[in-house]
Amino acid sequence: MIKLQAGGVAPVISYNVPEATSHSGRNFIDLQIPDSYFIPPKAPTAKMNALTATSLRAASVAPTEVTAAQVKAELVQQLAMIQDPLSTELQNLDPDEVVMMAQAGKQLALYNSTTGKVKYTYVDKRLETETPPFVPDQHLPEFIDEGIEQETIGDGVSGEMADNRTPIASMLPPRDRDPREPDPEPIEQIVTATVNITAPTNNETILGSATGAQFTISGTASARRYIAGRPSTSVRISQVLVKVGNGEYQTATLNGSSWSFAARATNSGSLPIQVQAVALGGESDVKSITVNVSLEQPDRIAPVVAIASPPNGTTVTAPTGSNSVPISISGTATDNKGVQLVELMVDNNNQYVQVDPKAAGDWSAWSKQISLAPGSHTITVRATDAVGNTAPSSINVTVNVAPPADRTGPAIVITSPAANAKINGVFSGATVTVEGSASDPSGVASVQLFLNGNPIPSSARPKNGNDWSSWSANLLITDSGFFTITARATDSLGNANDATVGVNVTLMPDIVSRLTRLILVESYQLSSYLGNYGAGRTIKTFSLLPGEKTRISIKTYTRTEESAKSAASILDSVTDERVEEFETLMANEHSNQKNYQESKMYKVGASAKASWGWGSATISGELGGNSNSAREEFAKNVANATRKQADRASAKREMQVNTAYEVRQQTGEETAIEREVENINVSRTLNFVFRQMNQEFITLLHLVDVRVGFFRVEQINGKEENVYQEVSLPELDSLLKQVVVPEKRSEVKNAILRQLMNVFDYQDQRHSFIEEKVFLDERGQEIPNFRYLRAKKDYVSTYRDRATDTEIQVPGIILAANKYVLRTEGMMVEALLGQGNGLDDYSQGLQDQTVQAKILSNAQLQAEIDRQQLAMQIIASKDQDAAKLYDLMYRPAQPAAQPKPEQPKAQEKDNGQLSHVN
């Protein structure tokens, strides 16, 4: 039994088990990519043609007339392709219902639920565009991520798509020919690259001082192109990359066919060097050597420096009106091998100045005259020896100077943008970067920006710390027109000054049609683990009088199948009813029901996998911010749906405790658990408290895999069909080659990778969910051009429960961690003795005498046991003297001679002893 602690508090039993209740689902994130980025379909639909026209007026297409026979035939064909079990609703689907929904503009979509059964729903048959009208004379702005280096060749064409010597066939000028004529076959060509390392040689020894060895790596590199039936030609080497030790590849200096690279070794020992030459078309060659680095033993003893004057904590008072006061700093410095330099820094500004030595090269005593402005200052002196060992010493000095009256605001200038500058942006807004400078004798405290007199300012950022000699700020303008930007600088005394500039902003539409989409398909697991376990609400209390007994019966919510199902939840059950209820709650949590239902159409086979959520993200978001907000919304929806179901299930987990005084007629149910209890006390009541036990569940929503999907509405055989393709990360390049125009593939790929390399978990910590796999040959060397992207293998996240100090490891990245408490069918009972005594003094005296008689009887029996043990010890030791003493002490007294009475009959008592009965 679990007993209550003092104050009626139940102890907490903390434990965890490795087995978890887990459910799987997927979240779809539509990437907002302009239509101009996609390759048009071979047979464009009416809506696709409408997008390329002067306006984006929706095409008016009448619903296709269908019959019940056609629908039934198509339905039977679809169901025949499905290998998974069908739900009861799908088995009983009426074809007439499908016909009616088709005439209403809805189409049937099959998908797998979390339990694996195939279910169905209806989605909009026609996907309308969600973009504003577009004028073809305008051009869409091209988004380029400054953080990703993009190689260009020739006239700005991506390096993977073009060569400045031979134009690609698809980029040749248009010519008059039959549009049905196929494109000419590309000319097959082979390009080889060769790289050589001429210095240093393999196994050469590099000498250097203790601080490191400087040396130059150099060699030659060349490449040639071979075309069948033609002489070979030279191809330019685009770059030579050098990798020293375990460092990263760095670009060498290329001069014709020769290259060189300045290297530095900081540790003694074997140092591998790897050089890779890359030709203009991407072909490469790799060479490796190993050199031996030998460095002198370093001096690790730091010098000793001290500030002798002024003492630490000195306060200097300057005349009124002075802006600074001169102070002389002096001290000493020593080192075992000689001091090389002594420097001084004020207020940790990282700007050291050399002090004056006692004599040239003699730093045993030094001094420096400096000027300090009013305020508290930290003076730091740093001594450096010949090998670079340093040692600091610091003091604090306060300068009190009465500042002069300052009523003039800071000088402020806006350097960018220029007056009346024209700024273009998309409908979501144009970001204007405002730069300038500000200065004030008393110091600039802040610079704030105002847009069109808006009273809410935006704060600018200084160049460094309190250095406002240059500042910058970003303003987001969401409307077109003329805007006035006001920059206000404020000094430390509150004086302010303004500078203004006007700009013309033009916003253009960013055409994003939902007829063609790229989708991040993220797979999640919702895993539930057991947490704390303890007593919850009080179910029943009753009392027994002294000597009273009764029978109790316990009824739980699991006694009938119906009540057990209604009290189940996905936290501790995998029944179809609870999973379907959870999916319904998830659907209700989404604000955009239309887009969520359309995710049911994202299927590769006959049915789509279980869909838990839908979101969207733009490809221009920094650090994947848009996709992370979609994931955060998805995690919140999962948590809300789980909490609603857990609260409902817990509320139905009712338990009843009935006594003999509360008999209830029950028919058609199982027999309840019955117990008989009795109060054996004669003076006090016995109180019973029944409490239902609660179980805490720890649920973790974690991202375990990601794929990329492509969805398009196409015209097939005169009928609009939804075409969906889904690939893994290693196949991403192949998918982009099929659906994205060549000049935008690099940008789209970088945008997708940026979304997956910046995933924030439930603690707002950034994770990179993907990695680049590199193939190695039998010697452990990297095989050029053999690498691919994948989700990180065996990536594990750890959740620590502070309440129980336990750790739970799950695969992938944890996006949400929540705790839910559910009632259980367990129960604990605590018996509490009443405090009031029900006996008077006489009755209490009888009880006390009865207890005293028991005590004396037990003492007599214990004395007899001790006597027998003493006798056994004497017998074992064969001590004659002790035996005589024992006999004298315990010999029974001889009674006086009396007539011999009649021999009584022996009779056994209830306790097993023999007694004599006359």
Describe this structure in words.
The structure is a single chain. The chain has twelve helices and 50 strands. It has 918 residues and is α+β, with helices and mostly antiparallel strands. Strands 1, 2, 35, 37, 40, 41 and 48 form a seven-stranded mixed β-sheet that branches. The longest helix is centred in the last third of the chain and has 37 residues. The radius of gyration is 44 Å and the shape is extended. A hairpin with a 6-residue loop joins strand 29 and strand 30. It starts with 12 loop residues before the first strand and ends with a strand. The C terminus is likely disordered.
Under CATH, the topology of the domain at 189-295 can be stated as Immunoglobulin-like
Proportion in β-strands: 35-45%
Q: What is the class of the domain at 189-295 in the CATH system? A: Mainly Beta
Oligomer: single chain
Number of strands: 50
Largest sheet: 7 strands, mixed
Alpha carbon gap, first and last residue: 52 Å
Please tell me the CATH architecture of the domain at 189-295 by its name. Sandwich
Q: What does the radius of gyration come to?
A: 44 Å
Mean pLDDT: 77
Helix count, DSSP H or I runs of 4 or more residues = 12
Helix content: 10-25%
Structural class: alpha+beta
Annotation keywords:
17% helix; alpha+beta; 918 residues; seven-stranded mixed β-sheet; 12 helices; extended; Immunoglobulin-like; disordered C terminus; five-stranded antiparallel β-sheet
